[in-house]
Specification:
six-stranded mixed β-sheet, alpha/beta, 2 domains, Rossmann fold, 12 helices
């Protein structure tokens, strides 16, 4: 289900003394099945952009097409669009409220007035997709879970609507390292095994470097860079100038090159850095 954002601008509180341009003539395309990393510093327009893709905000100007449908049109069925494009906000576990995990995950499909068999099938599938046990979920309270597990429940609640596109806004915010790695593994699985189009909003350069197919970089309401992780992180000077970093291992490789150690400048992982350094040392040994 392709997404096309065509020259959209969004102005908060237009016509007031507090007017602020959050998006400025943004255009981008996301193909069906892509895993996109959306990065940028606070206030760059990331969250505003994804709320437009989900139909929560309407652009001041420009068009957005979801699967060929202009969702900025007057007669568009936004309820149907939001079933296709699921949005998981930061700290989604704060929105949990039911007495059992099952009931929380079933809330969306139930509101769509599906029959009980369809609801049960969707809940089972959503729980499986995030690695939660169905039998335990029928009786266990979400408030008895760890932070990472509660976040899985919240994501399952969105997946139970069976979206084709899943947008996750800082899904690891506030989690400990174990919970963070667990959530990221599940998100990767949603893309690789279940074929979901994923848009991951993140501040973590390391996360996007190892997970996504393509990165979109936002700054001051504009898309300033796009490309594969290797292509984007080679633009280290540009990223640093707009207040972003690059993966620590990429920075290490950059500093080694500055000292005359000839290794690749697009290293993204520790394993790649290790191979490059060993290769360099072996080359020196035979000089």
């Amino acid at each position: 289900m392709p997404i096309k954002v065509d020259n959209i601008t969004y102005i908060y509180m237009k016509g007031t003394p507090f007017e602020s341009k959050a998006l400025d003539k943004v255009s981008l395309d996301i193909e069906d099945g892509e895993f996109i990393g959306l990065i940028g510093h606070t206030g760059s327009g990331k969250s505003t952009l994804v709320q437009h893709i989900n139909g929560l905000l309407k652009p001041t100007s420009g068009k957005i097409y979801i699967d060929g449908v202009d969702i900025t049109g007057k007669d568009v069925n936004l309820k149907a669009i939001r079933q296709k494009v699921g949005l998981v906000f930061q700290y989604p576990e704060h929105q949990l409220f039911e007495e059992t995990i099952y009931k929380d995950v079933a809330f969306g499909p139930k509101n769509l007035e599906f029959d009980e068999n369809t609801i049960d099938s969707r809940v089972r599938k959503a729980l499986k997709m995030v690695g939660l046990d169905y039998e335990e979920s029928k009786i266990k309270s979400p408030f008895d879970l760890s932070g990472g597990q509660r976040r899985r429940v919240a994501i399952a609640g969105v997946l139970a609507m069976d979206p084709k596109v899943l947008i996750l806004d800082e899904p690891t915010a506030g989690l400990d390292p174990k919970g963070r790695d667990s959530i990221l593994s599940e998100i990767k699985l949603l893309h690789d095994k279940y074929g979901k189009t994923i848009i991951l909003v993140s501040h973590s350069m390391e996360d996007v470097a190892k997970l996504v197919d393509r990165i979109i970089v936002m700054n001051e309401g504009k898309c300033v860079l796009t490309g594969t992780p290797r292509e984007v992180f080679k633009e280290a000077d540009t990223l640093i100038n707009i207040g972003l970093g690059i993966p620590q291992v990429t920075m290490l490789a950059r500093k080694l090159r500055q000292k005359g150690i000839n290794i690749r400048d697009d290293v993204l992982t520790v394993q790649e850095a290790k191979r490059e350094i060993i290769k360099y040392l072996r080359g020196k040994k035979h000089d």
